[in-house]
Design goal:
31% of the residues lie in helices and 10% in strands. Strand 4, helix 6 and strand 5 form a beta-alpha-beta unit. Helix 4 packs parallel to helix 7 and helix 5 runs parallel beside helix 6. The protein is globular, with a radius of gyration of 28 Å. GO terms for molecular function: serine-type endopeptidase activity.
Length: 416
């Protein structure tokens, strides 16, 4: 026969365990970086083919990325992180042209039809990466409107900065920059990064900026160069991201940190989502998962287009200041597209045009959230204490009943 107190003791132990499990849910948690690329819906189970940023340079034959037969079922984490549903209520990038320098863009791709200008080789996107990025910048999402890009009414000027396999070329990037400047593109997104600076590249970037374009560039190459026999690559600057006035962008995981093995570099202005991101490709209506610095660069370029459409009188320097001043504070400030469009900046001043001297900015007030978190924590603690008190009272009553309501010290005595 079990002692009368064992059931209550187990209840008490279970209540303590429940309180321990409930308490962390009321406290703010630091998301840990995922060990793998997250699925499209942020949960294990949904699988999509990967979108490469380049094809095998040593393959004897060029085999283009095939059409995807899979479609995403839900909006991915990156669009939620950038608050695109609310952003589109304020700006869709209408009237802005984004020149995308990468592997090319298929003009007839789903979600992009009628808004892509691509001549010659730029219309042949064998890799698929350029079309994937164009969808993040200006895609409508096609049959999946919740997978729209940052600026779904912007136009895309497709320009090649790589060969057909996706290998970057300095000469092609320079020619593309000049073509974008001549076309008067308001935003120029350079999805490739070059290991060396040269006079022609510097001149082309300077000309684009003088013409009024905001130049956004990948902070590091993707895929990264081979490490050879060394496990570490020293920090270095890549180009044109290192040119003065260029908005340099790196990728980040859902937890806000850069992926393991990222190339070290200096002078990064913004981090943007760059893992487990969903977009379309040049063939078919299916979806892919993509990541890396080019993906982050596309998101930043889309945000620039949204800002330029919402604030047409802002200078290119003011636009860059908007994105950097409204970013989430971190080791590398994290892009907040919604805040960049909707925040009210301080009065313009000469010093404010220096990217290192930003004016005060009105950003989201998190005090209410912090108070709500504190109240939730207090509620869980008080509730847990109340549950424990009730269970303890029940336990004490059961023991008292077993003793015939005699005091504990009198449990073993008998009457004369």
């Amino acid at each position: 026969m079990r002692p009368p107190g064992n059931g209550a003791a187990r209840l008490l132990s279970g209540a303590g365990l429940a309180a321990a499990l409930l308490l962390p849910t009321a406290l703010p948690a630091q998301a840990a970086p995922p060990s793998r690329v997250p699925a499209a819906d942020g949960k294990k189970g949904q699988e999509l083919p990967g979108m490469p940023s380049a094809l095998d340079p040593e393959a004897e034959e060029v085999v283009c990325t095939p059409a995807s037969r899979e479609t995403a079922k839900k909006q991915d984490w990156s669009r939620q992180r950038l608050d695109l549903d609310r952003l589109h209520q304020h700006s869709t990038g209408a009237g802005v042209t984004v020149a995308l320098i990468g592997t090319g863009v298929a003009p007839g791709a789903a979600g992009l039809k009628g808004r892509v200008t691509a001549d010659g080789d730029a219309a042949d996107d064998c890799v698929g990466s350029g079309t994937f990025l164009a969808g993040l910048i200006a895609g409508t999402g096609g049959d999946s409107p919740r997978l729209a890009g940052v600026a779904p009414e912007a136009k895309i000027l497709a320009l090649r900065g790589t060969d057909r396999r996706g290998a970057a070329s300095a000469d092609l990037v320079v020619d593309a920059l000049r073509a974008a400047t001549e076309a008067r593109a308001e935003v120029i997104a350079v999805a490739v990064a070059l290991p060396r600076q040269d006079a022609a590249l510097s001149s082309a970037v300077a000309e684009a900026r003088r013409a009024g374009a905001v130049v956004v560039a990948a902070a590091t190459p993707d895929p990264p160069p081979s490490r050879g026999g060394s496990d570490e690559i020293p920090p270095r600057t890549y180009w044109p991201a290192g040119e003065p006035g260029v908005l340099s962008v790196a990728d980040m995981l859902p937890g806000g940190v850069r992926p393991d093995g990222s190339l070290p570099t200096d002078g990064v202005d913004l981090a943007a989502p760059g893992a487990g991101v969903v977009s379309g490709g040049p063939r078919g209506k299916g979806h892919y998962l993509g990541g890396g610095v080019p993906v982050a660069t596309a998101y930043a370029a889309g945000a620039v287009a949204a800002v330029r459409a919402a604030h047409p009188d802002d200078s290119p320097e003011d636009v860059v200041r908007r994105l950097t001043a409204t970013a989430y504070p971190a080791d590398i400030p994290q892009l907040d597209a919604y805040a960049a469009v909707t925040s009210v900046l301080g009065e313009p001043a000469a010093a404010a045009r220096d990217k290192h001297g930003a004016e005060p900015v009105t950003v989201r007030d998190t005090a209410a959230t912090d108070r709500a978190t504190g109240r939730a924590t207090l509620f869980v603690l008080l509730g847990s204490a109340a549950v424990l008190a009730v269970l303890w009272a029940g336990f004490a009553l059961s023991r008292a009943r077993a003793r015939g309501w005699r005091p504990a010290g009198a449990a073993g005595t008998t009457s004369d």
